[in-house]
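re the bet — no i am not wrong, look at it urself. input seq straight from the record:
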Amino acid sequence: MRRFIVKRSIGRAFTVVLAGAAACGTALAQTPRSPGQAYVYELTVTHNVSVDFSNLPAGIRGQAAAQEERGNKTPVVYVLTLDTDRVNPDGSAHVNVSFTNSLESGIRGADPAVFARFNQFAATLDADGRLIPQYDPSMRLSVGAHGMSPPDEIHNQKAGQMADLFADFNTFAGGCAERSHTKSGGVWRVDSHDRYGLSRTYDFSASAGASPGAATVTMKGAFTSPTGSDSVDGNGHYDAVRRLVIDLHLVDTFKNAPSGGPASSGTTTMDYHLK
């Protein structure tokens, strides 16, 4: 049972491509990363969320409900470009990440160059395919010249945002790399810890894939806390030779009732594709 440290984890089902049917030891002995390589991931996030706004003042209740409705109707598409500038002895790579956000591109009169300046951060593309942004949770946004926060603080904030969005992706990548030789019928478990130190256990299983050398893998998890519950299911593909997630479909179903805050429930769906 392998352990991973992630910011936030929720379970979903995935498909793993065991390219070349390489044995686990052989795949790990290779070094598929090299300086100058670029990887592009497209991530689409779709919400179907219901929030209880009954405790809000009447004057803002309607505005909050309208904002929720717009969020449910409008998927957010991120396109992340990972440029490799250094490869470490353990097979991981240092990458500089830049990304676009479909909501920002729809803002009338906005200058794309401004968004491009701030939508970037440094990260590690681990040897098993996990994308680990370099995020410092102790760094807070300050107000600098002309009312703007310094670029390094904004980059850190963007890294934190993506660390959350890639938490389950990372659990999947690490779990697939652990069993890169998996064949149909394989069953295993992975333990992870979220940023609060809470342990989460995910159940993986493999079944026959659509083509030779491929196995469909499911990753599932169900979790409870004092404020609610959530469960994760997903499906996708993992290339065991290049050690990269090829595509991944995740669905997080949740119910939250925080003390002093509005109750919410619904689903968040995330689709990742390596372009």
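see?? The mean pLDDT is 82. told u. also The two ends are 31 Å apart (CA to CA). so pay up
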